[in-house]
Design a protein that fits this description.
With about 60 residues, this protein is an alpha+beta fold. Helix content is about 40%, strand content about 10%.
């Protein structure tokens, strides 16, 4: 699981809660701007968060034999 917390959300999930919800948390970041519609309003930031979130998985997937 990866979590990006935008400050204008109705509920800003704390890191402690997300770690309890999924101990395999791969990314957590609390951002400075954005709100409930961050994917529309902060497209660049959202895309960066996706890249950072899944970068750790890029090389974790075993190559086929």
């Amino acid at each position: 699981m990866a979590v990006s917390v935008f400050p204008g959300e109705q509920y800003e999930a704390p890191r402690s809660w997300t770690e309890r919800a999924d101990p395999k948390l791969i990314h957590y970041n609390k951002l400075d701007k954005g709100d409930h519609f961050a994917t529309w309003e902060q497209q660049t930031i959202f895309a960066q968060e996706l890249r950072v979130s899944f970068r750790s998985l890029r090389y974790a997937i075993a190559e086929p034999s």
